[in-house]
Amino acid sequence: VQVAESGGGSVQPGGSLILACVASEFPGSRFCMGWFRQGPGQEREEVARYNSDGTTTYAASVKDRLTVSKDNAKNTFYLQMNSLKTEDTGMYYCAVGPRVRDPHNNLRCTLSFWGQGTQVNVTS
Question: What's the mean pLDDT in 87-114?
């Protein structure tokens, strides 16, 4: 599975960007996708998650500003980013993988396939 992000760039605070993540294929009918970001001098953090059942989750720092969605026809995920802040600056990565059953029969997301990232700069 190959994954590629696009759509990064420079934007002023308060502006918007849409990132795209294209997967060459989906790892099974049960899959998950995550958007991560890594700011300067910071650890990589997950900001959004999309599951194949349509459920989504967001980090508290981006909730109500970022929206993840999927275009079924194009094998593409999107991250709509609104009201951007300077602290949103960083490299944004997309990862996809299968959801698998753990020993307790719960579905777990395993993000096995990663893209190279796309840079987002929020600056005045």
Answer: 95
